Amino acid sequence: MHSEVVASRSADPKGPRPKNGSAPPLDAVSLAIIEQLQEDGRRPYAAIGKAVGLSEAAVRQRVQKLLDQGVMQIVAVTDPLTVGFRRQAMVGINVEGDLDAVADALTAMPECEYVVMTAGSFDLMVEVVCEDDDHLLDVINKRIRALPGVRSTESFVYLKLKKQTYMWGTR
Hints:
Blueprint: E1 2-7, H1 28-39, H2 45-52, H3 56-68, E2 72-77, E3 87-95, H4 99-107, E4 112-117, E5 124-130, H5 133-144, E6 150-157
Antiparallel strand pairs: 1-2, 3-5, 3-6, 4-5
Helix pairs in contact: 1-2, 2-3
């Protein structure tokens, strides 16, 4: 497990969100703080302050403001394989009717780690993390496909994860 800072123009669905879908403008110092935390989410505020030219207290205040505004979140990221989840898949879903209702139902499922409304071949893309193939089959067949409005699904089982970063938003 390691700590990551996820910084983006969109916030965590559970946390504060920028109004009207727009993020507050970030100055160079805020971006530099985010970059420092993306390199090491446990980096001390004093060390960040030295790197960006602020006091420890000023960094602490800026970080709290970025968290409160929903610009970033500091989270512990685990490797699913090391904590008992041996099967991951991306599931493309086509929906009839209310897209929001299906997306909300998927968001409530603990196995659905990532739910995105899309334009293109699928209405929704959902990343699913499961213990094994039987668990994945149960989630797709008995829970996702059973949702009212789900017309079809297509599953993309992960064979090997080659890259996963959270460095967007600053470069």
